[in-house]
Amino acid sequence: MGGMTATPPARRVLLAAPRGYCAGVDRAVIAVEKAIEQYGAPIYVRHEIVHNKYVVQTLERKGAIFVDATAEVPEGSIVMFSAHGVSPVVHQEAAERGLATIDATCPLVTKVHKEAVRFANEDYDILLIGHEGHEEVIGTSGEAPDHITLVDGPEDVANVSVRDDSKVVWLSQTTLSVDETMETVDKLKEKFPQLISPPSDDICYATQNRQIAVKEMSSEADLVIVVGSKNSSNSVRLVEVALGAGARDAHLVDFAEEIDEAWLEGVSTVGLTSGASVPDILVEGVLEWLSKRGFEDVELVKSAEESITFSLPKELRRDLRSEAAELMAARGGTGSAD
């Protein structure tokens, strides 16, 4: 034995900025709180307002009821559509049930919906790059089901066929990895050289910024922790981006207590970030957890300034309980404006 023992390297945390809430999520969460405040509980929300366990549980305690289908909302009630957007069929279902609606779709998702409608009207085949079954993809596809083909990643390109090679455009889910999307686009362009790109980039500014910040820290990080829920597409992508950019290890957790102490073995630098639907209180919980284990030195890795905000859904300026009652009366029902 004997000899000198090497001083262990200093333990530090690289904290990504920007991280956490984007403008669309912020707007959607505030919209639910405001609706409960203005109209009283319950406010029904179709699907999770945003993909985050903590946010959903917090809003449930305040009086939000999350449902999977419009049919679960009592007639004559108020229903809110989530930040991921819904298809025209869902708006129709709500009208048929005499529901007053609040649309909290992120404006950046609405932009993709409008692009889909415009290209469908011009009779283009639309190749939608996204993940099958994701709520945003279902909503966008529903805008022009006869014109949209889903392309789920580069390996799916081989299966794609179109009616006319000269009238093809690609659109994408807003929460994908920029790199993977461009890899899919390149493959599509090889197959369809006349493929048109959307007028502006569909991947949302917040998704891009969070990915850039993670890339910047990953080459120096032994371990990257991403705070976010497993059904949050942009959070899952952050783990993939971290590993792709050189992080030795990367994990997704909802809460600090999900971190496994074994991950810290031989780790001196931890990168920390959070998905676009994650409130900062959860990141603070992880910082506290790490600090108790010797990671007290926190450095901010800043890659962008974010100043974008979106105004709240216009429906919050109306008397929706009365509207719901009127809709019910017009249909000859009584409904429950509970």
Can you describe this structure?
By secondary structure, the chain is an alpha/beta fold. It has helices at 23-39, 53-62, 88-96, 107-121, 135-141, 178-191, 205-218, 233-244, 280-291, 320-331; strands at 12-17, 43-46, 64-67, 78-81, 100-103, 125-129, 148-151, 168-172, 223-227, 249-253, 269-274, 297-302. Helix 7 runs parallel beside helix 8 (233-244). The relative contact order is 0.19. The model has no long low-confidence stretch (mean pLDDT 93).
Rg over CA atoms, rounded to whole Å, is 23 Å
Strand order of the largest sheet: 10-9-11-1-12
- Judged by helices, strands and strand pairing, the structural class is alpha/beta
Order of helices and strands: EHEHEEHEHEHEEHHEHEEHEH
What about the largest sheet?
A: 5 strands, parallel
Q: Uncertain regions: pLDDT < 50 for 5+ in a row?
A: none
Mean pLDDT over the residues: 93
Number of helices, where a helix is a run of at least 4 consecutive DSSP H or I residues = 10
What percent of residues adopt helix (DSSP H or I)? 25-40%
> How many distinct beta strands?
12
How large is the share of residues in beta strands? 15-25%
Shape: flat
Distance between the termini: 76 Å
Features of the shown structure:
five-stranded parallel beta sheet, 338 residues, alpha/beta, 36% helix, four-stranded parallel beta sheet, single chain, 10 helices
Structural topology:
Blueprint: E1 12-17, H1 23-39, E2 43-46, H2 53-62, E3 64-67, E4 78-81, H3 88-96, E5 100-103, H4 107-121, E6 125-129, H5 135-141, E7 148-151, E8 168-172, H6 178-191, H7 205-218, E9 223-227, H8 233-244, E10 249-253, E11 269-274, H9 280-291, E12 297-302, H10 320-331
Parallel strand pairs: 1-11, 1-12, 2-3, 2-4, 4-5, 6-7, 6-8, 9-10, 9-11
